[in-house]
Design goal:
With about 110 residues, the protein is mostly helical. The protein is built from 6 helices and 2 strands; from the N terminus they run H-E-E-H-H-H-H-H.
Length: about 110
């Protein structure tokens, strides 16, 4: 199984921050996990979004995740920490009234 996963999943310094991705693509394992596990997309829907990846790529990404849960969950945590830091420290280019309206529409 390890051999099959390494045919489909790579971790390359400088590519996607060194995070695990579909070989030959910049689609991260954590993206596949988010769409499949959290957003409820089917394998077919994911493949439709990225025609260059295969069913085997998606399943290899999910297998990689289940073999490396702590790594991928750590990637999610890092992204969330960065987003919180950016929100608190970087000025938004979105006018405040537009941002408030968008948030109101999402919440209501």
């Amino acid at each position: 199984m390890e051999n099959v996963i390494t045919q489909h999943i790579t971790r390359t310094p400088g590519v996607c921050g060194g995070r695990a991705c579909i070989a030959g693509h910049r689609v991260r394992v954590m993206d596949i996990v988010g769409w499949y596990e959290q957003a409820g997309y089917s394998v077919e829907q994911i493949i439709e979004m990225f025609p260059g990846i295969s069913r085997a790529d998606v399943h290899a990404a999910l297998a990689y995740y289940f073999d490396n849960v702590e790594e991928i969950e750590g990637d999610f945590r890092s992204d969330q920490e960065w987003a919180r830091w950016a929100d608190a420290n970087l000025p938004s280019l979105i006018p405040p009234e537009l941002k408030a309206k968008a948030l109101g529409e999402l919440d209501g």
